[in-house]
Amino acid sequence: MAYLQSMPKSETIKLREKHLGAACQLFFRSSPLKIVRGIAQYMYDETGERYLDCINNVAHVGHCHPHVVEAGRNQMSLISTNNRYLHDELVVLAKRLVKTMPEPLSVCFFVNSGSEANDLALRLARVHTKRKDVITLDHAYHGHLTSMIDVSPYKLNLPGGPEKPEWVHVAPVPDVYRGKYTYPNHSQSEEELGKMYADEVGRICKNISDKNGGVCAFIAESLQSCGGQIIPPDGYLKRVFEYVREADGVCIADEVQVGFGRVGTHMWAFETQDVVPDIVTMGKPMGNGHPVAAVITTPEIAKSFADTGVEYFNTYGGNPVSCAIANAVLDVIEEERLLERAQRVGNHLLTRCEKLKHKHRLIGDVRGRGLFVGVELVTDRETRTPATAEAKHIVNRMREEKILISRDGPDSNVLKFKPPMVFSTQDADRLIDTLDRVMAELDGSIPLTNIKLEVIVTSLDETSSTTDSMLQSNMAQSLKAM
Question: H-helix or E-strand containing 102?
Answer without folding.
Answer: none
